[in-house]
Amino acid sequence: MTDPDWQRDMLRRISAEQQPAEEPAGPDDTPPASPPGQPVAPAHQPQPQQPPSYPPPVYEQQPPYQQQHPAYQQNQPRADWGRAAGDSGESVFDRFRRVASEAAYLIGGSGKLQHDVDLIATCRRPIAITRRVGVTSPVVNGGTSTVTALLSTTLAAQRADRVVAVDVDPGGAELSRRLELTRGSGAIEGATLVRSDPTVPALRSTLAAAQSQGARDVGLAVVDCPGSMFDEIATEMANTGHCTVLVVPSVPHVASYCLQQLDQLAPAGQDVLLNRGVVVITVVDSSTADTARWLGDAFRQRGLDPVLVPYDPHIAGAWPLHSSELETETRRAVLELAARVVGIVTQAAS
């Protein structure tokens, strides 16, 4: 081998060792074909890197402020507080309030429940034969119709027998207005309303006709005497009745006149008030409360313990009367009056 041939042969070997061998392209390495009209990106252009994905952050759930601080929760109003599931719409506290109000109605402001129970028991005493009660006043229009209506309806609500209210003033018909919605319709509450002409024979006939079903049918007959305590109807009831209710209004000048009339009574008339009488003081206006107290002291000095019927807006402006709308103190005063009347007539019967 000549020298030039040897040198060329060595150069070919060196160049062959320095040139790297090309790797065949795989099927996944083939660059995707570009759509027509788009420039072809160089194969070696770097692709943008996607940020690493991490799971969403989990925060610790904190309890609400009301649970962390019970005092705050107790001071906040709660909807349907105390309402039981499946209840009829009345919560426990609503029932408690209703029961308390019913107890307050029975007990009244004084809290003497036993006293009220005793009064009701007295009102329900059995009466074998009709007892007559006359309601009169030393003055005309002294409030006898109102007291007759209150007394008769209260007695009728407590008794099993009939209670008759007799209106002896067909012209004025004040008692009928207190008891009826319309004239002739009958009393709206338990009492039986009858009318009589203002004469003694007519009154006797009316009382006899009221017992058409027998002597035991009517327990009490309450007669509204239309005039003063010195007319014939009041005198008849004072002589033949079993109890007399004397009504004195709290108007100052009328109260003084009534006391003067009582002081002029004959001994027989004074005995009627002391033994078979009940004095009722009616407060006709809230401004006459002092006069009513003065009247009460004056009667107690004369040996009479009066029943005070306080001022009641329903009595002052309602025609007819509705017992359910009377004030609590009014109901208790009328119950006291009814018990005293029944106590007198049952003592007279024995």
Report the radius of gyration as a whole number of Å: 51 Å
Strand content: 5-15%
**What is the mean pLDDT?**
78
Overall morphology? elongated
Number of strands: 7
The percent of residues in helical segments reads 40-55%
Determine the number of helices (DSSP H or I, runs of at least 4 residues): 14
Strand order of the largest sheet: 3-2-4-1-5-6-7
Helix-strand pattern: HHHHHEHEHEHEHEHHEHEHH
Could you name the ranges where pLDDT drops below 50 across 5 or more consecutive residues? 23-29, 39-44, 56-87
The helix-and-strand class reads: alpha/beta
Alpha carbon gap, first and last residue: 175 Å
Please outline the major beta sheet.
7 strands, parallel
What does this structure look like?
This protein is of the alpha/beta class. Helix content is 44%, strand content 11%. The protein contains 14 helices and 7 strands. The protein has helices at 3-18, 65-68, 70-75, 92-107, 113-123, 144-158, 174-179, 200-209, 232-240, 252-263, 267-276, 289-301, 313-317, 328-349, and strands at 131-136, 162-167, 192-195, 218-224, 243-249, 277-282, 307-309. The protein has a 7-stranded parallel beta sheet, sandwiched between helices. It is elongated and about 180 Å long. The protein starts with a helix and ends with a helix.
